[in-house]
Amino acid sequence: MTPIIEFQHVDKYYGKLHALKDINLTINEGEVVSIIGPSGSGKSTLIRTMNGLESINSGRLIVNGYDLADNKTNINKIRKNVGMVFQHFNLYENYTVLGNIKLAPRVVLHRSEEENEAIAMDLLKKVGLENKAHMYPRNLSGGQQQRVAIARSLAMKPKVILFDEPTSALDPEMIQDVLDVMKLVAEEGITMVVVTHEMGFAREVGNRLIFFEQGRVLEDRKPDEFFDNPETDRAKEFLSKIIH
Q1: Where does residue 67 rank: exposed (0-12), middle (13-18), buried (19+ CB within 10 A)?
Q2: Cα separation of 216 and 205, whole Å?
Q3: Phi and psi for 100 in degrees, rounded to 5?
Q4: Closest by Cα among 27, 24, 7, 25 to 191
Q5: Is-contact 211 217, C-beta < 8 A?
Q6: pTM (two decimals)
Q7: Which GO-annotated molecular functions does the record name (predicted)?
Q8: Which CATH architecture has domain 3-242?
């Protein structure tokens, strides 16, 4: 297996708060890795370091061959190949749905207008929103906006897509549509790292599960092994509260 993200003794502080504690973690190409754990445990901080949205204080973090701890590293080169889907969509309100998807490939990749539009429309069809191409984000539901955000990330043809709690801001009836699109992405073999509260997704779609607590990786297992037989008392306590 080929590593695409490597944490080597990574620490992250916010003032006196030790948010990430000696993280040693390797994510390989093609893996779908779910990160779960209690709120405030550092999951979002961990995933945001993977494309430089959060800096690290010590250690090494290698992403697609680039060392994020090296001041000479051009962060924009990393972000060309590492997409990000946020909790609150982060779509541009002054662009149509189609315009949102076409923007980054045009500016960053200098993709031709004809090719760009064809790819964008194909992606909208994939996420079930081809009939919304010329609408603005404000006219879409939260679930539809999140599916547009996923299509926008896919438009760059990234090697990795990071998902930071992509369903936590959605109404319950919208969640499944977004999870279904994420399953399609996983089936295409794109490396995915997903911070999530959706235990069904973590168990069924992910091929690895990381249980995070107080800035540390407590368990790194196959999903079925984790859910059926957690090794740590903290994981057992966590699961007893969320699975009925």
Answers
A1: middle
A2: 23
A3: -60, -40
A4: 27
A5: yes
A6: 0.95
A7: ABC-type amino acid transporter activity; ATP binding; ATP hydrolysis activity
A8: 3-Layer(aba) Sandwich (3.40)
CA distance 34 to 201: 8
pLDDT surpasses 90 at 6: yes
Residue 243 has pLDDT above 80, yes or no: no
> How many CB atoms are closer than 10 A to CB 1?
9
Q: Which two tokens stand for residue 3?
A: 């590593």
CB atoms within 10 A of CB 159: 17
Q: Are strands 66-67 and 58-63 parallel, antiparallel or unpaired?
A: antiparallel
CA-CA-CA-CA torsion sign (236, 238, 243, 244): positive
By the 10 Å C-beta count (0-12 exposed, 13-18 middle, 19+ buried), 172 is classed as exposed
> Over the Cα atoms of the chain, what is R_g?
18
**pLDDT over 90 percentage in the chain:** 87
45 and 19 Cβ atoms separated by less than 8 Å? yes
Q: Can you tell me the mean pLDDT for 233-242?
A: 93
d(CA 238, CA 232): 10
Q: What's the token pair of residue 224?
A: 């079925």
* Sequence ranges of the domains in the chain: 3-242
SS3 per residue for 157-184 = CCCEEEEECCCCCCCHHHHHHHHHHHHH
Residue 17 has pLDDT above 80, yes or no: yes
pLDDT in tens, 197-218: 999 999 999 999 999 999 999 9
Model confidence at 242: pLDDT above 90? no
